[in-house]
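Researcher: For the annotation table, I need structure tokens for DBR1 enzyme. Please keep the output clean. Sequence:
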Amino acid sequence: MKVAVAGCCHGALDKMYETLELLQQRHNVRPDLLLCCGDFQAVRNEADLRCMAVPAKYRHMQTFYRYYSGEKKAPVLTVFIGGNHEASNHLQELPYGGWVAPNIYYLGYAGVVRFRGVRIGGISGIFKSHDYRKGHFECPPYNQQTIRSAYHVRNIEVFKLKQLKRPIDIFMSHDWPRSIYHYGNKKQLLKMKSFFRQEVESNTLGSPAASELLQHLKPTYWFSAHLHVKFAAFMQHETNSKEELPKATKFLALDKCLPHRDFLQIIDVEHDPNAGDSLEYDAEWIAILKATNSLVNVTQSSWNMPEKNGLHAKWDYSVTEEAIKEVLEELNHDLKIPCNFTLTAACYDPSKPQKNMEPVHTINPQTTEFCAQFGLTDINDRIQQAKEESSGRGEGEEEEEEEMDSTGSAEEPSEYNTDNSGLSSFNPDEIMLDEEGGDEDLSTCSVDPSPDHPPEFSASFSDIRIMPDSMVVSSDDAMDSNNEELEKSGGSKPVEEKSSTERSLKRIGGDENGNSGVKKIKRRNQAIYAAEDGDK
């Protein structure tokens, strides 16, 4: 089947779908599925804008609300993960995933689903070490800290995903797995984004948590966004035993959704021709959610996941075939995800703007139904209970409790260095917010450009790349042109879909001199969110 993959959408749904329509008109290519790798911006109204961690000048209504209201419907099934520029209050309603509009599905904090037999997983947000070991405690109305920490990846989501044993076909993350740039054309990447050099050479660009998942899951495809640059890589994984077949991952980072940018990729993915056209639950993932339900934490205290270190009675939460079978029997072998989208907030009305609309903490009926069906903890309900309990306690008692770790392991060191986290020193969104309005009133928002007067651009076919049989890893996209391995293998020869025994790409070391100063970092901040001069 044909799968379209998009980078940072930034709320430009009309642009994405117009481009897909143009693709069909010109080349008779119609994707069966659209994947979006974060910064989707499912903004329903002015209150949602206040919950989006961007400077006020970037708080625009865009067009998602038209799909939320039912005025429009996504022409293709769309599955997305969250990024670091989202209406966090909206996505927080669906921690286990759910429909944000008809035919548009959010994977949740972390999730795995199936479509036509293809297994699709993802993790939302970006990595920040100082929040990684905390629970999901944030809820609207957010303050200057929680509006950012709400989209930071947590160790419990990574832990759940690491319990997966069955193969994953496609995986999505917003930020890149750390070190992935060593498996592609690093020289070309630094030529396009020279301000990445310091982090690339110090190996601190990207998420160490995503890198850990990449090495564990070894998916066929891994898609990311966040850095607003197209980059391809091919990673051959090491085998754990002589019996294990070699595996490789085709990595692709997508550009942002702007006119004349290569922000869409079309790939052919092998699927089950006998499978239905509905989005389905993944039985192993549901079983893992049930097995790890006792680990759910909604406090700010830092804690580590269970591991084999003598401090935990249980550390392996992977599930047995019997547990998976029980899930199938619970569902009567009908894994179809119900189309139970429900409006949970007022929709933006251009004729009646409400700039003073306040965000509220909402429990979504989809989550209530999902948790009741599988016996899971509704995270938002737990947060509300915790707030009610804390309001009746003294400040000293609350602080004392927060110092305790619910797993009894608060004193364990973090598995990642807290002073060397991915993008921790030069995280573009964090610095940008600090320098360009991070301390602004969160109530400031804008609904311009008006949806009735959309930006003056139309879909350009240069926005699309079609990958006929598999992701092509060429000398332009994924290897140095002077790499000896490339010369021997013929340069632009595509990587075949089933060719899992191909040779690993040689790691490429930077051989150009260059220092990344403060001015270059600021340039990166601007480039990461705003359109560059070349886009105009």
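Researcher: And a one-line annotation?
Model: Residues 1 and 121 are 17 Å apart (CA to CA).
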